[in-house]
Amino acid sequence: MKSAVIVFPGSNCDRDAQTALRQVSGHDPAMVWHKDAALPDGLDLIVLPGGFSYGDYLRSGAMAAASPIGEAVRAHAARGGYVLAICNGFQVATEMGLLPGALLRNASLNFCCRPQALSIATNSSAYTAAYKDKSEVVFPIAHHDGNYFADAATLDRLEGEGRVAFRYVGNPNGSARDIAGILSENGRVLGMMPHPERAMAGQESGNDGVKLFESVLAAA
After folding, report:
1. Which of 13, 44, 60, 119 could disulfide-pair with 220, CB 3.0 to 4.6 Å?
2. pLDDT tens, position by position, 142-152
């Protein structure tokens, strides 16, 4: 699998994503600066990492979505390439129009940072197939704006098309219908607030993230 991580000013999980991809694939991903206008040839997977792109000024992900690399990311997704958008990257993906909805301030108005149980809503996606019969995972969360919002018609469509990938157990953010991660119409783009790339070591954060990366590696 040939992969790349997009690096925005304020990203703080880009190296975590790099390490996770190296661990699972055996190859270093390309680290692509947001001001580049083109991506490396032959990419299978792009990761939009977590952090605070542009300090989250204006609106989380809005400025990053307007970066020069954005058009190349959209073109990659349009031709069926895989995109994993994590935390701030999920916000960027919604701003880019790769995924519907928006991420609002947590219902508690507090920054949430802890291990979080998630239910796996589908085991048949390119990102969850390796979980097979597993029904729950634990990934770290670290966000202030993790409250997924969409209008009722959009939520009904996501549910009806099987595009909800993960749900919060206990719903700490007040997210609409407990949604923690959603898929694009073709299933190639996954946006999620929790951090699978931080659940790779099998120690404090566990290793539930490994199978997510193994899933997309197999699919790609």
Report:
1. 44
2. 887 889 999 99
